[in-house]
Write a structure and sequence with these properties.
single chain; about 625 residues; ABC transporter transmembrane region fold; Rossmann fold; six-stranded mixed beta sheet; four-stranded antiparallel beta sheet; 10 strands; about 10% strand
């Protein structure tokens, strides 16, 4: 017996819990309204005015309808011409009200459509601006991508939806006040029944809105995987390998499998939502027809007029629809708030901003120093770099040698301040990198990574992105391209520096791997004021002869610059002033080419193996 009572108490608390959840519907309404307001003041004001007018007009139409019926009955009974004219006047008045109502509704639709486009753009810009403030570790974290995808999905529509529903709720409340005033003339119980009949569908709507959000939140990785498979199948830069390895059917099968998993969950939720919404909606329908019968009985008993009966039926039906719409709007606002919590969680995510303000070092021309630097990637147990110490003087060339995974690229990421050391410090001209103004620091560095970006821009812009302040400077393009030895083939292209590269856009031309690397090398030279050049496998796609020519030329034009070079070709490495051999994140040897050969250690062994391959 006690279990049954407990079960009844739980069942009774269920709607209370659902309704209490809806009390949070206004959590983000202020922020969403502010966002819409700042997007376009005029459209927001017009939308608000139209919403208020749309809330008043339905009651006016209902009341004028009552006047029409009563005036028609009176004109029929009296036969007086003035009574007939009065009836026609009411008809004209109702026509005007209906025309105004249709106009306000259409105006609302137009305003919402325009705001949706503007707001979508604004929110995407906010998300992209936030992305620009993030550090490299965020972009190497899968959970970060899930958060970004959650923020972007629906973010362009949810704020406007929340504002529209908030305004719609105000419109519905205004309509309900006018409907209630009319129904109170009939019976206070009619108003109470009207309110109670709309609660069951609201409970179903709110419950399943929360469940749909939790489902969306949980399966973000699967949705992202599906998008990734679409990219692999449909993008031109993956097409060669997908076709040659015959990966298409396999990827399409995985795409289907992921879709089926998502669809099964969606289908189950949709079916349950449809079933309970229909079942609870029947209560509202039965309530309406009970009230319908009640009003008819009162009319037959001559306690209300035919016009009043028409008005009450119209008011009750529209009031029931409006009440249900208001509660559904609250449920929708609850759902919008759930999705907007993702957006604002992303936008309000605290990202420590660089605090350094220094524009010059304490010891000019001291160069770069690593002092006992150790670094571990987030989520990894073993350090990628361990107790690294070295000194690169102005004008010196440093080569990093070692197997893949030995920490060479990680060292470069620390030098360019994409990461911060766990322990130890990196100094530039006697000052810790963390104390430098990040913009000033990065202006001093020219970089080409092994996996450099092949921008689908013109040739000139591909070179110019190396110094965004001089992106359109054609003179600098030419100077940088000459240093990167890309100028000869650029001049032979149809439109020279204005030739579109890549295949994404009309008229684009593709380059060979070696040509792309020369473009990237030229990009590094765009920063004429950079005294640090970082080259991570800059000639990996070139043949040995082309590589030799580039580095002989390169050494000549970088006399006064510090250079950090990563290369697996010892014919290139031997030109460096200092060679550092790395293994498992540690420096095991360093010295000149000749010194390391004389030591007969790891470098000498690797050099002899590679040299034997050319004999």
């Amino acid at each position: 017996m006690s279990k049954q009572k407990k079960h009844r108490r739980l069942r009774w608390r269920f709607p209370v819990r659902e309704i209490s959840q809806s009390l949070s519907v206004f959590q983000y309404s202020g922020k969403a309204l502010g966002l819409v307001w700042t997007t376009n003041h005029r459209l927001t004001v017009v939308l608000a005015i139209l919403t208020v007018v749309a809330g008043l007009l339905p009651a006016v139409v209902a009341y004028v309808g009552k006047l029409i019926v009563d005036s028609v009955v009176l004109a029929t009974q009296s036969g007086i011409t003035s009574d007939r004219l009065t009836a026609f006047g009411y008809v004209g008045l109702e026509a005007i009200a209906v025309i105004l109502l249709a106009g306000t509704q259409k105006g609302q639709t137009v305003c919402q459509s325009l705001l949706r486009v503007l707001l979508g753009q604004r929110i995407n810009v906010l998300i992209l601006e936030k992305a620009l403030t993030l550090d490299l570790p965020h972009f190497e974290d899968s959970e970060f991508y899930d958060k970004m995808n959650q923020a972007r999905r629906g973010a362009s529509t949810r704020p406007l939806s929340l504002v529209t529903r908030t305004l719609g709720l105000g419109r519905d409340i205004l309509s309900l006040v006018t409907y209630g005033g009319l129904l109170l003339q009939f019976s206070v119980w009619a108003v109470i029944v009207l309110a109670l009949a709309a609660i069951p569908p609201f409970i179903a709507e709110t419950r399943f809105a929360g469940e749909a959000f939790r489902l969306f939140h949980r399966r973000t990785p699967e949705t992202r995987q599906q998008y990734y498979l679409e990219t692999l199948i449909a993008r031109e830069d993956y097409a060669k390998e997908v076709q040659l390895y015959q990966l298409g059917p396999l990827m399409l099968q995985r795409y289907h499998r992921t879709f089926e998993q998502i669809y099964q969950e969606d289908r189950n939720l949709t079916i349950r939502k449809g079933f309970w919404s229909y079942l609870l909606g029947l209560l509202s329908t039965l309530t309406f027809y009970a009230a319908y019968a009640w009003i008819v009985v009162e009319t037959i008993a001559n306690r209300i007029s035919l016009g009043e009966m028409t008005m009450y039926l119209m008011v009750f039906r529209q009031g029931q629809s409006t009440f249900s719409s208001a509660l559904t709007a609250i449920g929708g606002m609850y759902e919008d708030n759930l999705y907007l919590s993702n957006l604002y969680e992303f936008l309000e995510q605290e990202v420590p901003q660089p605090e350094g303000r220094a524009t010059r070092g304490l010891i000019p021309n001291d160069g770069i120093r690593f002092e006992k630097v150790t670094f571990t990637y987030p989520g990894m147990s073993q350090p990628a770099l361990r107790d690294i110490s070295l000194h690169l003087k102005p004008g010196e060339k440093l080569a990093l040698v070692g197997k893949n995974g030995s920490g060479k690229t990680t060292l470069i990421k620390l030098l360019t301040r994409l990461y911060t050391p766990d322990t130890g410090r990196i100094l530039l001209d006697g000052l810790d990198l963390q104390e430098w103004d990040i913009k000033i620091l990065r202006r001093r560095i020219g970089v080409i990574f092994q996996n450099f970006v092949q921008y689908q821009f013109t040739v000139g812009e591909n070179v110019g992105v190396g110094d965004v302040d001089h992106l359109e400077d054609s003179v600098r393009w030419e100077v940088a391209s000459e240093k990167g030895m890309a100028l000869p083939f650029i001049e032979s292209m149809p439109q020279g520096f204005h030739t579109q590269l890549g295949r994404w856009f009309r008229g684009g031309q593709e380059l060979s791997g070696g040509q792309w690397q020369k473009i990237a090398l030229s990009r590094a030279f765009m920063r004429s004021g950079a005294d640090i050049l970082v080259l991570d496998e800059p000639t990996a796609a070139m043949d040995a002869e082309a590589e030799m020519q580039i580095f002989e030329h390169f050494r000549t034009i970088t006399n006064n610059q510090m250079v950090v070079l990563i290369s697996h070709r010892f014919s290139t490495v031997r030109m460096a002033d200092n060679i550092v051999v790395m293994t498992a994140g540690e420096i095991v040897e360093q010295g000149t080419h000749q010194e390391l050969l004389e030591k007969g250690g790891k470098y000498a062994r690797l050099f002899s193996i590679q040299a034997a391959g050319y004999q």
